[in-house]
Amino acid sequence: MPALTLDHVSKIYPSRSRGWKKWFSNSGTDHGFKALDNVSLSVEHGEFFGLLGPNGAGKTTLISILAGLVRSTSGKTEVCGHNVVTDYKQARRSLGVVPQEIVYDPFFTVRETLRIQSGYFGLRNNDDWIDEVLSNLGLSDKADANMRALSGGMKRRVLVAQALVHRPPVIILDEPTAGVDVDLRRALWEFISRLNKAGHTILLTTHYLEEAEALCGRIAMLKAGHIVALDTTQALLARVGGVDLEDAFVRIMHNDDALEFTL
């Protein structure tokens, strides 16, 4: 049983609900915008997996479906064997998501924020783990600071802590190091790498391709809602002939026959 499973998943957004120009067939039917098109993918337990693609490729939609924030139009999605629709409580309990956007409640301190997040999962007396997470993310000296007083980089650290506070077996990092300093980036990857070695499954999206190359054992690349490359990192480099992952990424994204790079 894989940690993450997407089985022929598609997502179509109605065009009029998002203000996009309608695409009509001869019958006049509104087909909407297809953000994901028949995507099948599995991530095994303990993998450090990279999900790459340009803006608008469908990465955020895919993550939103896994997290239960968006319902797919068709197909089946599971987290640790739990269907995200019919068994959503267990699916969400198995998952921790670090979003792209910085969102926070301005009325609480960092520690209060993490205690409240723990409560969402029925966890009490979780302070020992909270302290460990705070320490590993360089937040110990900010534990009693109000969220409003934190810099953008510190707020992003708290987002990571919130995703980890219930010790989920699967962690999704959606561009976690965007706009953060070198110290946080280094501390974050050291901590996440330790969690991965301890058995946690990691799904990473990032535009820093050197991070993906260094950390991810296997990579999928999305383009216009399709998986156009899927293989181990080293095998992708060898098959494409790129000198590094950034070079391979550019070659695949500009190749009209990129589906040849999938397994």
TrEMBL record:
Keywords of this protein's UniProt record, alphabetized?
A: ATP-binding, Cell membrane, Membrane, Nucleotide-binding, Transport
Classification via InterPro entries: AAA+_ATPase, ABC_transporter-like_ATP-bd, ABC_transporter-like_CS, ABC_transporter_ATP-binding, P-loop_NTPase
- Boundaries of every ABC transporter domain copy: 4-249
Q: Which SMART domains match?
A: AAA
Q: Which GO terms describe its molecular function?
A: ATP binding; ATP hydrolysis activity
Nucleotide-binding among keywords: yes
Family annotation (PROSITE patterns): ABC_TRANSPORTER_1, ABC_TRANSPORTER_2
Keyword Membrane in annotation: yes
State the source organism's domain of life: Bacteria
Recorded protein name is ABC-2 type transport system ATP-binding protein
